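Box S2. Input/output pair 1.
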Amino acid sequence: MKRILNLVLSFGLTGMLVACSSVKNPENVAQEYVTAAYKGDSEKMLSYIYIPENVKAQAGSEEMIQGKIKAGAAKAKEQAERKGGVKEISVVDKNIDEANGKGRVTIGVSFKNEGSNSVTDRVKLIKNEDKWKVDL
């Protein structure tokens, strides 16, 4: 009986650790958003974007946002490919206001080709329903 109880507790603790590690802080959200952009993954980018209800209610607004994100992702991917691919994406600076659920994270992107200039992307964030999202 003790063995079964230990096994159940072990699985429970493992589940809690996995669940807690999936919590995304603003820096992770910004970094993953920029990573998705340079991979050309507009669907993943869209999953990180906060779209207010009043914007969603406007006819055609979500489609317009999707189109712009898709175009931006394609452009970022093309830029990365021209520069030999992404070497590193890292957080350069952050300004997070947890109390008001707002923040800005500066992401540095370096490329594999020698002589390719690094770029910085500033990502504006907002906390919505206890999740950090990109605020366009």
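Box S3. Input/output pair 2.
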Amino acid sequence: MNQDVLANVSERYKLTEKNISNLTNELQKITQELDELKVTVDTMGKKVSDVTPLQDIKEALTRIRGEIRQMDLRTGVLQNSLLHYKIKKSRALSAKGQKNAHQQKTKKHKAAAGYEFDPFNVHTNNIDAEYD
């Protein structure tokens, strides 16, 4: 009977030892998964609390806004320069048109008075008439 009790206790010891070994392996797997989750959570926490990307975006937006202001200013200067050029050209054309109109009136007036003389045109009507 001692033998039976000893065998029974020995077998329960082996089963318990096997159970402890299985549970230890399972605990080790769960501990490893827990450590991986802790690392993941820690990494995500750092990413969430890290404001460096947000600061970089804000700086980029500020820089872009400044560039837009400079481009708007340059556009305004160019538009102003173009407007002044158009006005100057318009005035020059207007003055040239008035000068041409004045010259044509003067030519008609001189021609009517008989004073038209072109030194490069030998066949001027009034001069030919004088020498004939």
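Caption for Box S3: The chain has a mean pLDDT of 82. The two ends are 173 Å apart (CA to CA).
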